Amino acid sequence: MSATTATPFLMFTGRAKEALDFYVATLPDSEILSLDPGDNGTVKRAVARLAGQRVMAIDSPPVHAFTFTPSVSFFVECAGETEIDRLYAAFLDGGGALMPLGSYGFSKKFGWLNDRFGVSWQFNLDQ
Fold first, then answer.
1. Which of 19, 44, 54, 99 has the most C-beta neighbours closer than 10 Å?
2. Cα four-point dihedral sign 62, 38, 94, 21
3. Residue 2 DSSP label
4. Are strands 43-50 and 31-37 parallel, antiparallel or unpaired?
5. If residue 21 lies in a helix (H) or strand (E), which one and from where to where?
6. Are strands 73-78 and 120-125 parallel, antiparallel or unpaired?
7. Are 44 and 34 spatial neighbours (Cβ–Cβ below 8 Å)?
8. What gap in Å lies between CA 88 and CA 124, rounded to an integer?
9. 44-73 pLDDT per residue, tens
10. d(C-alpha 60, C-alpha 10), whole Å
11. DSSP letter at 3?
């Protein structure tokens, strides 16, 4: 019997492949592990590793009255200032800042944003 696991699950509405391709190209230790295509370029089911974290994603065929919310986010520990600056800028492109990159007392350098796909990310300098 295998161990019980909990995996973040992202539900997009037509942009899952685009989002996963961006995440894999931008985050270290990332790759798409499997992808089952849906109709018209959508994703029926995908599994990826993003910065070492296993994540599942789909494109939902029906449009729902909800989307992503910042109350759930990915928290990324960055090894250096060059890395946090690069990741924050890349993920902010086309998205929106919730907390601009800066010092907030609890962290020397921290930033929180919603990316262009609506997914929320927190970037923290791990020092």
1. 19
2. positive
3. P
4. antiparallel
5. helix 16-26
6. parallel
7. no
8. 10
9. 999 999 999 999 999 999 989 999 999 999
10. 10
11. P
- Token duo for residue 118: 């609506």
Region of 26 (left: φ > 0; alpha: ψ -120 to 50; beta: rest) is alpha
- Whether 113 and 95 have beta carbons less than 8 Å apart is answered as yes
Residue 20 near residue 46, CB atoms below 8 Å: yes
Both tokens of 117, joined, read 């796909």
The structure tokens listed for 68 are 């992503």
Is the distance from CB of 126 to CB of 107 less than 8 angstroms?
Answer: no
Token look-up 């992202």 returns 10
DSSP 94-105: TSEEEEEEE--S
pTM here is: 0.94
**Using one digit for the tens of pLDDT, what is the confidence trace for 32-49?**
999 999 999 999 999 999
